[in-house]
Structures are given as C-alpha cells and as structure tokens.
Amino acid sequence: MIVGAVAVGAWGRPRATADIDITVLVDETGLQELARAAEPLGLEVDRQWLEWNPLLQGAHVRLAGAGVVVDAMRPRDGHEEGAIQRRRELSLAGHRLWFAAPDDLILMKLKVGRPRDFEDAVGVLVAQREALDAEYMAEWAARLGIADELAYVLRESQPP
Question: I need a surface site. Which of 43, 68, 123, 158 has the fewest CB within 10 A?
Fold first, then answer.
C-alpha cells in the first residue's frame, strides 16, 4: 500500500516529495525478492543509503532509477500489519492503487513524529474528518503510546 507524502496528497493536501513510500506485507526474504524483481524495471537498490541507515537493513529498502525513488518497507508493528488489511483502493492518474486508509495514515505519521508529519496528519484530519474512525484511532494511539500526539493534532485540526 502507498503511504507517506503521496498518500497524504490523496487524502489531504498535496506536498512536494522526493520519493514514493510503500509498505509491503513480506518478510526479510520477500523484501530482498522485491528488490531483485524491481531491477528489470530499471530500479536498483541504493546501497549507499543502506550503509547510512544500518538499523533499517532487512526492514526497508530504497530503490532508485529513471528519476524515481521508491522506499519499500515491511510493517514495523501490529498496527501497520492491520493497516494493510484496511487499505483502500483509489484511482490516481488513471491507475487503481492501494493506499493506507486515512486514519491509519494519520497514526503512521504520528509515530514518525517529525514536524512535517504533524502537518501532514492535520491536513488529512481536516480533509477526511467525517470519514475517520475516531474510536479506532484512539485505541491504536493508546496502544502505540502516541495518544498525546493524536490529541494535539485533533486540537490543531479544529476549525477556528
């Protein structure tokens, strides 16, 4: 499923990004197989990036080529595994693609916790407020230890 800034653009407000982030339900071997399968498409593993990010080896691979960068990652926790089951199909540029559901995307952004991730979460909240499952988000936020972060973006997304 597509996550990250491309998903934020689909559910909230678009912003510039240098890559496409995807989460795939595979094990470490499956992630390596995905990287090998991408090579005939002109995408190669960015080995220097892996050297700079040793803690992500086996969980995340960056593929680059033909002016595109794809960050493919395995789920990091039970929430992300479940999010794959809750993903939603959307049409983008004439293609039907799978995206993280907006409430799952908000939780993913809050887990990362950079300032732009909070901005992204607020943008999705504003655009998707009526479609979000508030109980689901509150339950997962408590389990993930990000309840305060969720409360913050809920406050920030309220109309003046």
Answer: 158
Asked if 48 and 55 count as a contact pair (C-beta separation under 8 A), the reply is: no
**Alpha carbon distance 65, 44 (integer Å):** 6
In this predicted structure, the answer to whether residue 138 has a pLDDT above a threshold of 80 is yes
What is the C-alpha to C-alpha distance for residues 28 and 73, in angstroms, rounded to an integer? 10
How many other CB atoms are found less than 10 A from the CB of residue 17? 14
30-78 pLDDT, tens per residue? 999 999 999 999 999 999 998 999 999 899 999 999 889 999 999 999 9
Q: Are 122 and 39 in contact (CB under 8 A)?
A: no
